[in-house]
Amino acid sequence: MLTKYEYKARYAPMMLIFVPVFFVAGIFSIELKSFLPVALGSVFPTILPFFMAQVGRDRGKKLEPALWLEWGGMPSIQVLRWRDKTINVLTKAALHEKLQRLRPVDVPPTVTIEQNDPAHADTIYEAWSDYARMNTRDTKENPLVFRELMNYGFRRNMLGLKGPAVVVLFLTGGAVYGASAGRRHSFDPLDFPPTFMYAAIGLLLVLLIWLALVNKNWVKLVSFEYAKRLYEAASKLQ
User: Fold this and answer.
1) pLDDT in tens, the chain (238 residues)
2) What is the DSSP string of 10-53?
3) How far is CA 1 from CA 13, 109, 151, in A?
4) Alpha-carbon distances of 104 from 107, 132, 145, rounded to whole Å
5) Which residues are within 8 A (CB) of 19 and not within 5 positions of it... i.e. 6 or more apart?
6) In the chain, where does DSSP find H-type helix?
7) Whose CA, among 20, 39, 173, 215, lies 20 to 30 Å from 166?
8) 106-138 burial by CB neighbour count: b if 16+ within 10 A, else e?
9) Is residue 127 within 8 Å of residue 103, measured between CB atoms?
């Protein structure tokens, strides 16, 4: 049984890869007046949910190091930096004071310390972010943190699966073309049944969504929202 996080952040992105297959199978089921295409198209994603969830997670996790490097560091570390403007400076000062009480370090970073040794400051920010994550995992007490964590996991894994999704789209389109050509004994799309045009338009729309929406900035936006919700919850810790 998948948890709520596994379902939304890991399984759902994998299922969305197969949307073109479901869509095409549905169209042909209507034309052929048979549920066989739908049944065949749904077998794999239906019987292997845990496996698919793991694949979805792995594809997304592999992206994280490169994304964080490109963005300038892990978002939960970045927002604690004095030079970062995500959090208001007064709110950040209070947050630093709170985190120092919860997870003390010898010398908490000031603006000057951070400027002189940003790597050491990041080490402290990482320790604070680890503490915040470990102590805000109760989903009932911190529903906003959990929601943004799921959103981040979903988008990250979608980005990781973008390549396979495009491949599935082209394979599905090729299969539709081949099936239509075989049934009409013609390679001219103008001779194909209307279902070919419906399928082609649907596949094109899905492709445009993957190409236009699923990108690094889409993931980055929600990653910083998660970091903000994380420290809002951490500020309430005792």
Assistant:
1) 778 898 888 888 888 888 888 877 777 666 656 555 555 555 555 555 566 677 778 888 999 999 999 999 999 999 999 999 999 999 999 999 999 999 999 999 999 999 999 999 999 999 999 999 999 999 999 999 999 999 999 999 999 999 989 998 999 889 888 877 777 677 777 777 787 888 889 899 999 999 999 999 999 999 999 999 999 999 999 8
2) IIHHHHHHTHHHHHHHHHHHHHHT-SHHHHHHHHHHHH-HHHHH
3) 17, 44, 20
4) 9, 13, 23
5) 206
6) 4-5, 12-17, 19-32, 36-47, 49-61, 64-71, 75-78, 89-102, 111-116, 118-134, 143-160, 162-184, 194-213, 216-234
7) 39
8) eeebeeeebeeebeebbebbeebbeebeeebee
9) yes
The model's pTM:
0.87
- Tokens describing residue 224: 């910083």
Tokens 């009409």 identify what position? 184
Residue indicated by tokens 């943190």: 145
